[in-house]
Write the structure tokens for this entry.
Amino acid sequence: MKIVGIHGIGNHRPGEVPETAARNLSAAWSRHLGAEVEVVYYADLLRDRGGQSDDASDLEDLTEAEEETVRELLGAQPAASSPGRVPQGLLTAVLRDGIADLAESWACPEWLMEWFMVRFAKEVAAYQRRGPARDAVQQRLREALDRHRPDVLIAHSLGSVVAYETLYHDGTPPVPLWVTVGSPLALPKAIFDRLHPSPEAGRGARPPQVVRWANLADPGDPVAIPVKGVSQRFAGVDSDEHHVVHQGFKFHHAESYLKSAGLAHVLTTAA
């Protein structure tokens, strides 16, 4: 079984050329999954262009658009209320309070939750900005699919957004099984409403190049929301959408999903 993967947020590997970073990520994914995986690396493209060249991880470093992404992500959390529109200078304080509350509810260090939110906002904004970076990210995935012709494509986190949009391009090789893990595709406003192509009448669909689409989500993952959101917002997703629960601070790590029984089951049915 040939498997290609595409990573999510927080995978920038400074000091490594893209080829080395891809090999190292592939080795890590293969170890966690227990099967050989070729991972598409693209984090460097989101840092070298569009002002995303640093590893800033503080709310003070966010642009206005990036702060808005954090606001939308916090507003989508279960039982959370969006802070709404507030003056730009006060928004950072409001977001920090929201992050503190979320971290406390999950018994998670506040610094870790803030790092996570900032990285999500910066990398999502860098990818969503139309231009050479976005095109180059999608091109790397298309080239990998054309080169490997995989039986399975596993897309984690922001990688699922890249894959969704790439798989709609004419000429992209067909994918027998697409597995999204920790996917923000159903996240209102920040992701769902900015997809290309745009969902119609509030509903997206399985990309035409995909034969089967399975989704795995951790109910404690702040990105993979709302609960069962992917199967509700998109047509053509397996009706028995798998949900897995992880403990500790690895609520969004690819490692947790790759080691999960849910993913093993999906891959077994694809064999």
Q: What stands out?
A: The beta strands are 3-6, 38-40, 152-156, 175-181, 204-205, 210-217, 234-235, 242-243. Residues 49-53, 85-90 have pLDDT under 50 and may be disordered. DSSP finds ten helices and eight strands in the chain. The CA atoms of residues 181 and 216 lie 5 Å apart.
